[in-house]
Write a structure and sequence with these properties.
By secondary structure, this protein is of the alpha+beta class. About 15% of the residues lie in helices and about 40% in strands. The chain is built from two helices and nine strands. Strands 1, 2, 3, 4, 5, 6, 7, 8 and 9 form a nine-stranded antiparallel beta sheet that branches. β4 and β5 form a beta hairpin. It is globular, with a radius of gyration of 18 Å. The termini are far apart.
Length: about 150
């Protein structure tokens, strides 16, 4: 068997495992490096961490190498029951985008995230955050909007 054939066979055997490793179900099995929920969006791995009154998004490539966030932004639309909150995230470190404001996490808050980094096309990802149902701080910092 030639080396080329051996490589092709190897790739055919591991490809399904690699493809499966990036499904939302597979990513949900373990928290990300920062204990957040992971999603794949185009060429990126996105990890969303929700704090008391802020969202933090970590951006890396498929090899988990940090992607520079300078000049980028993200918009998160959180849906909790009948309420909808919009949080704008801005660069806050090497591969970090952060935004803060008033929002409430329920037992299953849906988050639609639109991420735009200077080097690529806008990417979308869907997250489901689980909270206690307690309202976050009423104090609003940064760019945020609440619509009811």
């Amino acid at each position: 068997m030639t080396a080329v054939r051996a490589r092709l066979m190897f790739l055919c055997l591991i490809w399904p495992a690699v493809a499966f490793a990036h499904t939302d179900e597979a990513l949900n099995k373990n928290p990300g490096p920062h204990r957040g929920q992971m999603r794949m969006a185009g060429p990126y791995h996105l990890e969303l961490v929700a704090g008391k009154d802020e969202l933090t998004l970590y951006v890396s490539d498929h090899a988990d190498t940090a992607i520079e966030s300078a000049g980028g932004s993200a918009k998160a639309i959180l849906t909790s029951g009948k309420k909808r909150y919009v949080i704008v995230l801005m660069p806050a470190g090497e591969n970090v985008l952060k935004g803060s404001g008033e929002f409430k996490l329920t037992k299953s808050t849906n988050v639609s995230m639109l991420v735009k980094l200077p080097a690529g096309e806008p990417q979308r990802a869907q997250f489901t955050l689980k909270g206690t149902g307690k309202t976050s701080s009423k104090k609003s910092r940064g760019k945020s909007q609440t619509s009811k």
